[in-house]
Structures are given as structure tokens and as C-alpha cells.
């Protein structure tokens, strides 16, 4: 697609993070979530949640490029974004 033509995303890149909006009552929050274990539907839903009505005019995707990134170091970095177990952000993946 466009990202590949622009040289941003390349074949073989692995999606490891994506922004998503979570609504709880009258409040909403946008976070980047570790997405390595997300299935297709979860990724599509996360991307789709970044709606303009929540002030989003973009979606942030974090990718790992095999051969250039160390997966163990990427996973350690992504631990920072892992939601606590006692929050609605913790997804059953």
C-alpha cells in the first residue's frame, strides 16, 4: 500500500504497538498498546477507535523490522506500555 511505496512500512515488518481509544462512562483515554499478540480483528478495532470525535487525526503504529531490531529489546521496551492487570485496558489476548 501507500506506506510500502513511501518506504515507511516494508514487507515482513511486525506490528508491535497501536493506539486505541477506550471509553469508560463519560471519560475516554487514548493509549498505545502492545499489539504483537493481537489478531486481525483486534488490530482493526484498535485502529478504528481513533476517531475524530475523540480528537484523533491519526493512528500511531509501532513496527519492528526483523533483521534491524532485537525482538527481546523491543518486548522489554513495550513492557512500559503494558496496561496494569486491574484496568479495563487489559485485553484478553
What does this structure look like?
By secondary structure, this protein is α+β, with helices and mostly antiparallel strands. The protein has helices spanning 2-6, 40-49, 71-78; strands at 14-24, 27-34, 61-64. The chain has a three-stranded antiparallel β-sheet. The longest helix is centred in the middle third of the chain and has 10 residues, at 40-49. It is globular, with a radius of gyration of 14 Å. The model has no long low-confidence stretch (mean pLDDT 88).
Average residue-wise pLDDT: 88
Number of helices: 3
Number of strands: 3
Span from first to last CA? 27 Å
Topology:
Elements: H1 2-6, E1 14-24, E2 27-34, H2 40-49, E3 61-64, H3 71-78
Antiparallel strand pairs: 1-2, 1-3
What is the gist of this entry?
With 93 residues, this protein is an alpha+beta fold. Helices cover 25% and strands 25% of the residues.
Q: Key features?
A:
three-stranded antiparallel sheet, alpha+beta, 3 strands, 93 residues, globular, single chain
Amino acid at each position: 500500500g501507500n506506506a510500502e511505496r513511501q518506504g515507511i512500512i516494508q514487507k515482513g515488518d511486525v506490528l508491535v504497538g497501536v493506539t486505541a481509544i477506550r471509553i469508560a462512562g463519560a471519560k475516554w483515554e487514548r493509549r498505545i498498546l502492545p499489539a504483537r499478540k493481537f489478531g486481525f480483528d483486534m488490530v482493526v478495532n484498535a485502529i478504528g477507535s481513533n476517531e475524530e470525535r475523540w480528537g484523533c487525526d491519526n493512528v500511531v503504529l509501532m513496527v519492528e523490522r526483523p533483521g534491524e531490531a532485537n525482538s527481546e529489546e523491543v518486548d522489554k521496551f513495550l513492557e512500559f506500555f503494558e496496561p496494569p492487570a486491574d484496568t479495563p485496558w487489559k485485553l484478553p489476548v
